[in-house]
Structure formats: C-alpha cells, structure tokens
Amino acid sequence: CGYWDDTVKSHSVDSLRLKCSENGGHRGAVNCLSIGSDGGLMVTGGQDATCRVWVIDHNDMSIALTDGYVQTALGTNDEDSILNCCHVLWGHSAPVTCLSFSSDLDVVVSGAMDGVICVHTVRQGKFIRKIHTGKFFSDVDSASTSSREKEVFVKKLALNDHGRFVAHLEDGMLQSYTINGVKLGCADAGEKLNAMEICSDGEMLVTGGESCHVVIRTLSDLIVRCVLDLSTHGPIRCISITPDDLNPAPQVMYIGTDDGKVTIVDRDLKSKSKRSTLEDLEEEDQGLTYLEG
C-alpha cells in the first residue's frame, strides 16, 4: 500500500507487521498500485507522473528484469528486501491517478490527471502507446466536439485479459478501448463511481457508486444489462469478485456499502446479465447475504 511518507510498504497479513518500506525513486506521493495475478510483480503510479515496476520477494527475477537506468539511479537491488524496483515507466506529463495491470498480457494501462492513458509492457518496461480520452469523439464531428477535448482526469481503469479496458473519467463518462487504441464504446455512468471491476470471462463490467446501485454492463458496448438496488445500504464503496478459475466454486461478488455492511451475491453474473430489470433480480433474492462490517 502507498503511504503518506511517499513510500510503498509491505505488511504481513496475519499480524500486519511491517516487513518492507521502499519508494523506488518516486518523487512525491504514490497514488495507486496494482499487483499481478501471479503475485510476482507490482506496478505503482505516482504524483511524479511515472509508474514503477516492482518485483515482489524474488531476488533472481529482480536481477534479471532491472534495467540500466534503475541500476544507475537507485543502485543495486537489496537481496534482503521484499520489494525491488526494476523499471521506470515514462510517458505521462501529469500525476498518475489510476492503473490496471494484467499479468497474462504483461501489460499495464495507467491514467493521469490530464486525461491521458499510457500503455506499457511490464517485464520489459517498454512504452506502447498514448491515448487521449478527450479526443474520443474527434473523429465523429470535429466542429461540435472541440469543446469536449478538455483535460478531464482519469479516475479509474479496469483491464481484462483479452486486451480491452474501460476508463472512468471525472465527468462521469465511461470509455472502452482496446490496448491497441481502438475505440469500442462510450456511455455516461450518471454518477460518481467508487468501484469498477471486470468479471465473467472479461465480458461484463460491474460498477458501483453514489447512486447506491450496482450496474452490470457488457464490456464491448457499455450497455446496461442489469441493475441491483442497494439503496437501503447507502452508496457503494467497493466491489470485489472472486476469480473465474476457482472451479468448481461459483463466482461470488462482494459489495461494500456506506452502512458498514458487505453484500454477497453468490449467483453467476452471466445469468444476471440476461435480466434487464431490477424486478427480475428481486424475484430471487436468496442469493444475497448481508454481513455486518
């Protein structure tokens, strides 16, 4: 996790004991981080407009991946350290606000306060491309969209293992792209989102925010397929979904709300996507469990 002292700290899960504290050369606050599904690599994004790639508790991999710039700027890696920075990812000119990392693709997408999204490889630390979210409509009607081409910072990113990702912007818009820069879809979320996750084999987007609803959309076109009303519990604060590969266990979604409770949805989200109204969901509410926070 990123701390107020501009470092990344590692704690043991059982006792919360501090095991490591590093800044990896970040000049300023660490605003976001993402750990790969294999647990071996982590990417951080900072106020200094850079992202940093870290190797977690694997000294041999750290030595193999660390580039010449990091070796010169930060020195040799500490064999006893759990966290070792191996790459600095350049491309942003404004503070990095969010990122999403796919271990399977070896790709990280990062968003900044100026509305720019950068795509990098992780293990080699190479810049791939830059995407300007303010220019999403520029190919449609340049005369009427000039006012839209403004700097609206990227609040959240969600990337699937098929190379498609969604960006949530400060003005409430959702934009869907491929990592090749192809525009897929755009929609107005209509609220401030606090959580955004991709689930069900990378085909569905789940969001939650201040409107107290969990909204499920198809990732390709961002069309709403299902809405779950949790207004009795307050705004949605966080959403987490168990991986698809935990077979034969069913996929479960955990939803944290403003009243300190966790709502557990234990039905498969693909079947939910076939229901278009909230009433359809309420007909089968036995799949919802409420736990005190």
From TrEMBL:
Coiled-coil zones: none
Keywords: WD repeat
SMART domains: WD40
Record's keyword annotation contains RNA-binding: no
WD repeat copies, ranges: 23-54, 89-130
UniProt-listed Gene3D superfamilies: YVTN repeat-like/Quinoprotein amine dehydrogenase
Origin superkingdom: Eukaryota
InterPro entries: BEACH_Domain (IPR050865), NBCH_WD40 (IPR046851), WD40/YVTN_repeat-like_dom_sf (IPR015943), WD40_repeat_dom_sf (IPR036322), WD40_rpt (IPR001680)
One term under GO cellular component: cytosol
A molecular-function term among this protein's GO annotations: protein kinase binding
Pfam families reported in the protein's UniProt record: NBCH_WD40
PROSITE patterns membership: WD_REPEATS_2 (PS50082), WD_REPEATS_REGION (PS50294)
Neurobeachin beta-propeller domain location: 1-263
Gene Ontology process terms (BP): intracellular protein localization
Protein name as it appears in the record: Neurobeachin beta-propeller domain-containing protein
Organism: Trieres chinensis (Marine centric diatom)
